[in-house]
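User: I'm preparing a small set of examples for a lab meeting where we compare how different chains pack in three dimensions. I only have the primary sequence for this one, and I'd like the structure in token form so I can line it up with the others. Please keep the answer compact; I'll paste it straight into my notes.
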Amino acid sequence: MSADVLSDLVITRVRAVTTIYNDVNAPHRRENRPRWAIVLKYEGQTVYNCAGHRYLSDLNNMVILPMGCTYEWQCTRAGHCAMIEFDSPLSYPEILPFPVRSGERILRMFRELDYKRMLKKPMYEAESIRDAYSILLKLCQSDEQKYQPREKLSKIAPALDYIAKHYTEKISNDALASLTGLSTAYFRKLFTEVVGISPNAYIHDLRIKKAREMLKSDHGSITDIALSLGYNDIFDFSRDFKKHTGVSPSKYV
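Assistant: Understood. Below is the structure token output for the 253-residue chain.
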């Protein structure tokens, strides 16, 4: 769920990269946070409470504090905390937790970003945004691994790679199963278990996501988009698009 929220996140500017020492303290309350923050408590421990949920923050448990969320925080074990604050038009009401396996590696990414901002070389603002995205990507990968055992994901990886490159074409379960060396029945079962939806549903989902991007551009008609995405005609595309989004392509903004 946390990774899903970040998929729509657009960073417009990195405001600050800071490190602060927190002593053990009483709970503090923060109302309607004005911007996003990625938090790494690399020494000690902090506890956050938001919307009835409790979140732990330490070297192996990072949190993202979204713009618009209200929460309480308390340092329960003294130590240093690193934070990246940035602007984004997206808001979200709850804290996003991310268990991580390599907090030390992410800490190095924090420090490298801070170092670049101190030097203020040409394009440092753009580099700051790029590096912030790199940290978010690392967190999303950790979030995916939490739900998807590596051995199962690795078995269907060839199929996922093929779909990403050929989702506009006709793809059968038999063809995908052959790429993985699994029987068709077991491949379909394993794919659904790992991804959460069937291979066919996953392909349709990719097409609709791409359609949303294409409809926001000024290149091509709805018919052109439908044919480009592998649909036989505009009617199949419109029916599929409305099923996924609730609106027709012509009314989508």
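A couple of notes for your slides: The chain has nine helices and nine strands. The first strand starts at residue 13 and ends at 22.

User: Perfect, thanks.
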